[in-house]
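User: Second chain of the day. Same drill as before.
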Amino acid sequence: MNSKNEIGWASWVQLIVLGIIWGSSFILIKRSLVSLTPVEVASFRISIACLALLPFVISRFAAIDWSSWHKFLFVGLTTTGIPSFCFAFAQTHVDSATAGILNSLTPIFTLLISVWMFKAPFEWGKLLGVLIGFVGAGMLVYNAGGGVHGNNAFYSLLILLATLCYGFNANAVKQFFPTTNSVTVSAVAFVMVGFPALLYLLFSGSFARVVADSAAYPSLLAVTVLSLLCTVLANIVFYKLIQNTNAVFGSTVTFLIPVVASIWGLIDGEAFGIFHIIAMICILIALLIIRRK
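Assistant: Same format as last time:
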C-alpha cells in the first residue's frame, strides 16, 4: 500500500462502482418494506450478510486477532448494525430522495470525526469540497420533488444517526485496521452483529412467517440482494478503498448516491431537468477538490 495514500484511477473506479451499488440500495429497501416490517428488513439484511461471511471467519479463525474483538464489534455496529435499522424505519416515512441527501452528510461527519478524534490535520480545501458536494446533492433532492413530508423530522434524524455511524466507521477502519484484509474485517464485524439478528428472526417467528407467505418472496429477494450486494460486497470494496486512500475520500461516495437514485427515479418516470445537471456538476467539482487535497 502506498504510504502516501495517493488516489489513482483504480480508486476512482471503486468509488463509482460503490456509488452505483449504494445508490440502488434505497429502492431495494423500499421493495423490502412492501411485505416485511422495518425490524425484519434490518434483521434479514444483517443475518444474510452474517451467513454469507461466516465461512471466511471459520477458515481464518486462527489468524484473526481476537484481542481486537471490541474494535471489530464497533465496526460492525457502525457499518450495518445500527444504520440498517435506522434506514429501514426511516424509509417508512421519508422518501428515497430525502434519504439520499441526508446520507450525503457522511463525508462531513467523517472529516469532523477524523479531526476531532483521530487528530487528522484540518484542511479547508476538504471542508469546501464536502460542502459543495452537499449543496449539489441537496439540489438533486429538492428539485426532484423530495423533502421530509409532514411531521416526520424524527425519521430524518434516524438517517442522520446512520450517517454519523458511517463517519465513525470510515475512520475506525482506517485507524484500527489499516493493513488487515478487507474481507476479514467485514466478515468478523458482520458475524459479530449478525448472530443476534439471526436469533431474532428464528425465535420471533418472522422467518417462519416469511417462508410460509409466498407474497413476501419478492420482498425477501429484494432484501437478499440488498444484503449480498449493497452490504457484503460494497463494504468489502469500501474498506479496501479507504485503506488505500483515506476516510474522507472514501466517504465521498455518498455524493454519487443521489445521482444514482435520480436515475432510478427517471426510470420510474420522474422529471429530470436543468437542476439535476447543475447538481451533478457540483458533485463532480467537489470530488475533484477533495482529490487534489
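DSSP finds 15 helices and no strands in the chain.

User: Great, on to the next one.
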